[in-house]
Amino acid sequence: MQRNSPSVLIMLLCLLASSGCTGKKNTSKAVIPANNPTLVIACPEGIAHDVLKAQGFVVSNRLGAELKIITRSSGKIPDSAELKADIWIIKPEEIGEFSQANLLAFASDSIQEPGDKINWSDLLPLYREKLLIWQRKIVALPLAGEARVCLYRSDLFNNPTHQNGFKTKYNTPLKPPNTWPDYHKIAQYFSEANFNSGKSLPGLSSSEEDFEKDFLSFAAGYTRQPVSPSEKITPEIENAVFSFQYDFRTGKPLINTTGFVKSLEKYKLLQKFRANSPETESGTSFLQGNAALTIADASLVYKTQSSPALKDKFNICSIPGSDGYYPGSSTEFRPLPIGNKIPYLGASSNLGCVNAKSASQELAFKFLIELSSPEIAERICVEPAIASYTRYSQLDKIRLDAFGLDSQRTTSLRETIRANLSHTDIKNPALCSRLPGYQQRRTILVEEVKTYLNSSGGSAQETMNQVAKRWMEIDKAWPEKEFQALVKQSVGLIAD
Fold it and tell me: Is 341 left (phi over 0), alpha (psi -120 to 50) or beta?
């Protein structure tokens, strides 16, 4: 039986949302007056735009308002046209920059109270404690969230020839990777088995955002100390627990410390297994059958299953972790054979913010609260082309029928999403940067790291020293104490 396309599913969801699911006529639908107000939303192309088109007009009709969506460019302060918007859809990394420019209105603290429509306690801690908050103020509400996975070719993994060959070479069974060393062995084996002319991994991403996301996901486990939910955070370990790219106590970069340097060295070892051409869109190589495994957003699962060449020939597992870590700026390696899975989070999220100069702030917040509600979130998470999660209730009610998977792989996907996002229950996920000037720092990191990865020699330490040096030139735009406070706020802590 042919499955519905994402566009068809979206239209069906919209119809259901506006008419109700009981079969009875919905008499509570808002009647829009002739002089109804208009909400203008500036939104980048992509998943956020899809969410707005699928659910935004349902919500605006409910509120008796018209909705106008204009396209904005991510990575920069709004231009003159975008400044007139009532709502901006932004990435978490833009929060610091928007806040510094005094562009964000503050949501009422009352939305955190029990009984409020948004159900604040249902939001994953990543959002209600970190990404939506800046210096104790709620400055954003979640629109679309996270769902990153590892995909691998199960037809290759289940092939007896490869199973025997891998066991002979490494004296361990061929199975989904738990750690990055496992990932390396699998990539090496299939490259040497002449899969795709010796290239078992996708090429480096041509997108700065995706490249940074991939590298920092790799580095997170090597640079962060694991902490369980029950463990008390003492002053002695606080910096190792919360700091990532910067030291929040000093405001100085950590990007050139041993954990990042060793991560870069290990990351370069994967280069010999990568395709020579860059990955222009995340997951393309895997979708084309030209990679044995890859890291990508969960929406790639739907695309892969819809491919006649790969249908039922892949499986899903969680993103690997490191086999140990370097605490803080220490050079000491502490092994963790079971895997140190510190998730890098926030970079795939989309948030809604209200323009501080909007004349319709109250209506704009009502719209975002409705759009971020459990009701709408549940509709979003069942759409495979979006596949993003921000709430506990979404994880409890994951319905994956639309992905078109068999029961075994449906279970794998469900468990993987839950496992990856349950890591938000640990106290120290590695967060995307929310510092003002983040775009410049990203460009510098990508430039320097790509140069090192594509060279035959060079030094990982010198590469990261150069990144740190160039970052500190940007940081001089702020007085030292002010920047130190910004670093602390950027990781979700309260500045003194």
Answer: beta
